[in-house]
């Protein structure tokens, strides 16, 4: 079995969604899931290419790259099932497509805060990009200090026999915000952390320092650009 099938079968059995005997049902689910993952992978590639193109164009026009790095991920079957269950959505492929916005995720790491807004606007203005929702956790950070600019977008993907509009979650953040979020994310998966309140407080302080540093770096860069 490939990893995806193993992960999915374990998830289905663990969640009591399919009994281990109903092999046909499971096989159908595997095939459907495999096709879905392929479709989401293609959607990620489309979105990633759009940001790469913007970065290349920007570097010619302004002699610098606003994007430092692009990362992408597909949500694991276990997390997909868990989210559908938690939100009381039907556990079907159709339901994944209609109800979940973050099966495909693209993370765009920018140098400066202004770059995030500029790149996001250029991307959102493209004819085939339909912006479904925006969450600006930079202007309004989360209580724990989390900062990022989130967009849920729908883009058309052309397959051999049909066109399918696919949703992708795009997260734009600075290098410093990304560094912070990676460390903070670790807490989600660790259990029984001693002195958790102290760590949360320290992380929040770091988030404030990082925000100030991001602003300062941006103003230094503006100063340097004026000089040139
Ligand atoms: P993972 O492992 O990164 O995929 P929605 O999906 O829009 O209906 P949700 O999930 O509340 O509702 O959306 P939101 O707030 O936009 O968060 C989605 C993703 O943003 C998360 O996905 C994280 O990647 C990131 N994120 C949001 N809040 C935090 C935070 O406080 N800390 C960190 N480190 N990341 C955050 P997942 O599925 O939670 O995780």
Task: Give an overview in words.
With 228 residues, this protein is α+β, with helices and mostly antiparallel strands. It contains seven helices and five strands; from the N terminus they run H-H-E-H-H-E-H-E-E-E-H-H. The protein has a five-stranded mixed β-sheet. A hairpin with a 4-residue loop joins strand 4 and strand 5. Helix 6 (175-189) runs antiparallel to helix 7. The longest helix is centred in the first third of the chain and has 40 residues, at 23-62. The radius of gyration is 20 Å and the shape is flat. The model has no long low-confidence stretch (mean pLDDT 88). Bound molecules: ligand 0O2. Residues 101-102, 135, 142, 144, 146, 150, 181, 184-185 line the site of ligand 0O2.
Beta-strand percent range: 15-25%
Q: Ranges with pLDDT <50 over ≥5 residues?
A: none
Question: Mind describing the biggest β-sheet?
Answer: 5 strands, mixed
Strand order of the largest sheet: 1-2-5-4-3
Give the ordered list of helices and strands.
HHEHHEHEEEHH
Topology:
Elements lengths: L2 H12 L8 H40 L4 E8 L2 H10 L6 H7 L4 E7 L2 H12 L5 E7 L12 E10 L4 E12 H15 L6 H32 L1
Parallel strand pairs: 2-5
Antiparallel strand pairs: 1-2, 3-4, 4-5
Helix pairs in contact: 6-7
The structure holds ligand 0O2.
Ligand 0O2 binds next to helix 6.
Give descriptors for this structure.
228 residues; alpha+beta; 7 helices; 5 strands; 56% helix; binds ligand 0O2
């Amino acid at each position: 079995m490939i990893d995806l099938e193993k992960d999915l079968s374990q998830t289905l059995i663990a969640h009591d969604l399919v009994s281990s005997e109903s092999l046909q049902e499971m096989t159908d689910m595997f095939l459907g899931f495999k096709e879905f993952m392929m479709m989401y992978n293609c959607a990620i590639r489309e979105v990633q290419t759009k940001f790469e193109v913007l970065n290349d164009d920007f570097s010619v026009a302004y002699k610098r790259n606003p994007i430092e790095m692009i990362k992408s991920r597909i949500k694991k079957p276990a997390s997909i099932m868990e989210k559908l269950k938690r939100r009381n959505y039907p556990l079907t492929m159709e339901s994944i497509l209609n109800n979940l916005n973050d099966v495909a995720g693209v993370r765009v790491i920018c140098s400066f805060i202004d770059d995030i807004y500029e790149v996001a606007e250029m991307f959102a203005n493209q004819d085939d990009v339909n912006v479904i929702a925006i969450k600006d956790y930079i202007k309004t950070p989360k209580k724990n200090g989390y900062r990022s600019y989130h967009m849920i977008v729908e883009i058309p993907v052309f397959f051999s026999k049909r066109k399918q509009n696919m949703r992708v979650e795009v997260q734009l953040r600075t290098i410093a915000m990304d560094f912070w979020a990676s460390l903070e994310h670790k807490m989600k998966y660790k259990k029984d952390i001693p002195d958790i309140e102290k760590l949360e407080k320290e992380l929040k302080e770091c988030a404030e320092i990082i925000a100030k540093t991001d602003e300062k770096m941006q103003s230094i860069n503006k100063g340097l650009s004026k000089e040139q």
